[in-house]
Amino acid sequence: MKDDTKQKYFKIYIMYTLAHATEEQIADQLSVCRRTIAKAIKWVTESRMSIPNNQALQIAIDGVRYRMQQLNKDLERQRKKEHPNDNAIIGYQRELKANQELLLKLQSLLVEKVDLTIHEECDIEKLRDKIKKAMTGNN
């Protein structure tokens, strides 16, 4: 498999697992079809390849930023309606706040590298555990 394809598959997998992006969001952002997304997730899961930590964090950050852009668009659409739904606006604002907090935590992990060096690699499960610990404040 080509390196470009591997990188794309890694990006899809991380956006799906760490950034919790939907298939539609991934398809829109990366201009891929749902079949490619399914193949990427299956390939990364089955191959158990190591993903560089800083690359995984950056992809997760990009996914959260994209989700925030979509939430902002939805919020603006709701506000521009003749009769905006206050509950929907509050919901969008809460989602945006939660995503902003997640983004800040991921960015701090990237900066601090959470005891990881640039050359060190670990599997995605260890990285996910470290991110969850940092997000919950259990250091």
What does this protein structure show overall?
The protein is mainly alpha-helical. It has helices spanning 3-17, 23-30, 34-47, 53-80, 86-112, 124-136, and strands at residues 51-52, 121-122. Strands 1-2 form a two-stranded antiparallel ribbon. α1 (3-17) packs across α3. The longest helix is centred in the middle third of the chain and has 28 residues, at 53-80.
Q: Pairing-aware structural class of the strands and helices?
A: mainly alpha
Strand order of the largest sheet: 1-2
Query: Which outline best applies?
Result: globular
The poorly predicted ranges are none
Euclidean distance between termini CA atoms: 38 Å
Largest sheet: 2 strands, antiparallel
Give helix and strand order, one letter per element, not per position: HHHEHHEH
Number of helices: 6
Estimate the mean pLDDT confidence: 80
Summarize the structure.
With 139 residues, the protein is mainly α.
Tags for this model:
single chain; 139 residues; mainly alpha; 6 helices; 2 strands
Topology:
Elements: H1 3-17, H2 23-30, H3 34-47, E1 51-52, H4 53-80, H5 86-112, E2 121-122, H6 124-136
Antiparallel strand pairs: 1-2
Helix pairs in contact: 1-3, 1-4, 4-5
